[in-house]
């Protein structure tokens, strides 16, 4: 199939960017979206132009690197997939496809379609851990039984790949789904209880400082999340936060 | 006597590690504050090492090319992590884990290292649970286990099909705690371009800030390389796009010996290549072989018709199918080890029986499992005369519960419903057992330069068992390296900060800049990917699943010529002083072009078939095992450690003889 | 506590609680209005009570006014902050693919409701305040119904009221149900609670519309 691509090009963080049009030909349905961009880039390199820069690594939907806003939706029109798992068979010959970086004040553009998501890292530095030394002298793993449902919910929250689709989809560029997934994973486990109060306060505080918007419960994040992280996590974080604020 | 000293402690096998820990030197907490350690790579090995070293009090700097440590490719590991916990009471023990790992590795790993790995395996699980890793649990709230290929016990801990992700996030959370305390400085989107040696010791690295293009000097008292494997030398592999050998190869060029480069694991159950555009391969968990039956058509005409789309696999009757693994290996059937299954698939496809349009795929069929589970389920749910549709539906539900996410992934990629038509699979490069040679302390032949995880060669011999990579990475990072590195650093308590304005750093930076300039200055004929794909083809065809002398000799020449062409004609657009992914790729491919040649040389030297390395000249000539891999313990019971001497083909071989005092060497038989 | 008010979550919770309070008030307001279409006497009686009871006048009324002001001021503050969180907008944004129109346009439905409140205050509350606390006019417990009827004589005003109630539905459709999520209520009862909230957000404004139209066509 032949496609028209409208791609955001921006030299670096301080330059102004713009949408540039490109044509690609001979795209096959079996290609992933990123392989389609590989074709474009090979074409650009041959012409002596600079290829389009985008984040990608594992190309199997788990590292969370790829991050494109495709036709107005993070990771494109398919559900429960990352861009690297989106296949071109979801598009038709002659389509025009808008490809933009994930937009948020807290995610400044590095180059072209690549953004800086270190805000997510800083939220996790603030409290996304259990303070236990790696001495090997901790208690036996089976000394802490965990209710299976809680363990499963904690796992579901922990499958967040930190791609930022939630922020990109949210009309307010809010990072509540991401932060709440991280808070929930620990809040649901007995190991996480000891530091629960400090953790939620510190992580929410850092989230606010990064300049993300507020949650208005539109639910766009949950729909666009490639891992299907549930809105329940946000409600849980709200509870945890209120509890923690009252406790001080 | 070899110049290689593995520094294996004296004494009985089971006491070596304890005794060693008791006798090595320690650094007191006040002095640790004055010692810097660089960790390159933040996967399971690097992340866990960085966190633990920082916890102990060292000042740690971590480097990764990704935008966050959490994205390292350990995250993609699916199946699980082994530990000799014996929670199932099925007779597991440290010794059994040790034994299985040595045997699985086809007797090409060190007894002492592997036993230590088994000893600390239980600690890993304790540690990970304490830091909140949500492993799968039973209804009683205790941890669940699953079984994996090649062993007789259930010792694999897992978190659905995302164990690697959960363990990596655990290590990353431990890192976060130290970053928050200021003990780890994380340099993300940075790539190590060279190792800096001062007075023969590793004292720092030269790194490129991938965002600004700036070349930076970083000094430390020791450098830990945990930069993963080099499967991407094949272009197509299950590794991440960015996975590369640069850190290890740069250290090799600075004097670290490279061990067993030819030991590559080719995983049998990957999604086949669909065309030339393909950029990487996707693994499907090995667990699928528990229920799937592997086959190709019996008649070559049928295979031909299927390839042309004239025939559907479901139209072939039972007797028209060749379940070749069940035929060749009646005892193990579809559950033969990875290397055996991979070679058998290649053999059938090479003979013209492949089933997708490229001719490089075999079927993995769940139809009989669906029937079997469906009938069982019908019986247990009180359905006495279930219709064929009901059986099928019930059976599909059972399969979905077990493998739902994998089936969904397959459907997304291939656009076929694997519940209705058999899956297609083909082997793909997955893991490299070879790596930097390290002694018992995980130190390379460069003092002060350590290697951990997949980047070293130590524990898996010639073949790695499933669910052991995660175990080794975390064992090295959490429980081995932090102890052994102290022994070395104890000499450095009075050294003080290592300055970076020295001639050694000047020279290393100049070397790096010259190299970048040379890469940017190619004539501009072909893109980096063009060379990478060509290299991959040579590697796959001549150094892939089975190798022979002639092919390997040709590979050495072809890679050498390709490398020469690369340096003359590669095209790297853009400039070196800003973000430039093509330049990053070019540097990595340049190193693969050297490693590939050494790989072929190593494979040529090893004239035996063992584990992941199958030499066509070394097969059983007669008897029940006729045609199967023939290991040669008399001549090849050693680790090949290669010393850099300029061109890869001139590398000098050093042999570390492997001593087996606790295990009897046997032939692996799966008939 | 100051941290509590500054944090995004606390603001959300405050927004939800003030919204829930207004929802409750709406129910009460509707109940009284509804009596007007079948009994002028009951309506007068209730209105008289509300208009003269000191607790209602000097405790509940200020609380309500504070609630309304807080809700819309906070709504503006959050909207501005949210706008700033994405400085460069998308060239193409397919919001409809993942979220309802109502949830994405609370500020607009809210603004319409706010404008309506202006009209409504001008119609009823201001004359009421003038009547009671400026002119100190003598209290007449039967004046409420005729005044009400008089206001709905104009088809334009009636139309504006009806239109505003439609927007109120849109506002409540997202706002009411989502307030549960904001205060951390998301469990097995959520689906039922959400259904109730959505039913409420249709039934109550529809009821107001019925009252307005009934009064308009019931001019003596």
Structural class of chain B: alpha/beta
Instruction: Extract low-pLDDT stretches of chain A.
Output: none
Give the end-to-end Cα distance of chain B, rounded to a whole number of Å.
Answer: 39 Å
- Report on the biggest sheet of chain A: 5 strands, mixed
Oligomeric description of these chains: heterotrimer
CATH architecture of the largest domain in chain A: Orthogonal Bundle
Q: What structural class results from the helix and strand content of chain A?
A: alpha+beta
Helix content of chain A: 25-40%
Integer average pLDDT of chain B: 95
> Which band does the percent of strand residues of chain B land in?
5-15%
Of all chain pairs, the largest interface belongs to:
A-B, 79 and 79 residues
At the first level of CATH, the class of the largest domain in chain A is Mainly Alpha
Shape designation of chain A = elongated
For the record, give the distance between the C-alpha atoms at the N and C termini of chain A, rounded to a whole number.
Answer: 60 Å
Gyration radius of chain A, to the nearest Å?
Answer: 20 Å
The tally of strands of chain A reads: 7
Give a description of the structure.
The complex is a heterotrimer of chains A (248), B (671) and C (220). Chain A has 248 residues and is of the alpha+beta class. Chain A has 8 helices and 7 strands; from the N terminus they run E-E-H-E-E-E-E-E-H-H-H-H-H-H-H. In chain A, strands 2-1-5-3-4 form a 5-stranded mixed sheet. In chain A, strands 6-7 form a two-stranded antiparallel sheet. Chain B is α/β, with parallel strands linked by helices and 671 residues long. Among the domains of chain B are: 269-428, Succinate dehydrogenase/fumarate reductase flavoprotein, catalytic domain (Flavocytochrome C3, Chain A, domain 1), CATH 3.90.700.10; 510-657, Methane Monooxygenase Hydroxylase, Chain G, domain 1, CATH 1.20.58.100. Chain B is 38% helix and 14% strand. Chain B has helices at residues 16-23, 29-32, 44-56, 94-104, 111-130, 163-180, 246-253, 300-307, 324-328, 338-353, 367-380, 388-414, 469-489, 503-520, 528-542, 549-569, 581-605, 633-636, and strands spanning 36-40, 59-63, 81-82, 156-157, 184-187, 190-198, 201-209, 215-219, 222-225, 258-259, 264-270, 293-297, 321-322, 362-365, 423-432, 435-436, 449-451, 526-527, 570-571, 638-643, 652-657. Chain B has a 5-stranded parallel sheet with strand order 5-2-1-9-17, sandwiched between helices. Chain B has a 5-stranded antiparallel sheet with strand order 11-15-14-12-13. In chain B, helix 3 packs parallel to helix 13 (469-489), helix 4 (94-104) crosses helix 5 (111-130) and helix 15 runs antiparallel to helix 16 (549-569). Chain B starts with 15 loop residues before the first helix and ends in a 14-residue tail after the last strand. The mean pLDDT of chain B is 95. Chain C is mainly α and 220 residues long. Chain C has a single domain (2-83, 102-216), classed as Fumarate reductase/succinate dehydrogenase, transmembrane subunit (3 helical TM bundles of succinate and fumarate reductases, Up-down Bundle), CATH 1.20.1300. Chain C is built from 9 helices and no strands. Chain C has helices spanning 2-6, 8-35, 40-52, 54-84, 101-104, 106-134, 144-151, 155-182, 190-216. In chain C, helix 2 (8-35) packs across helix 3 (40-52) and helix 2 packs across helix 4 (54-84). Chain C is globular and about 60 Å long. The N and C termini of chain C lie far apart (56 Å). In chain C, 26% of the residues are buried. The mean pLDDT of chain C is 94. Chains in contact: A-B, A-C. Chains A and B meet through helix 1, helix 2 and helix 3 of A and helix 3, helix 5, helix 6, helix 12 and helix 13 of B.
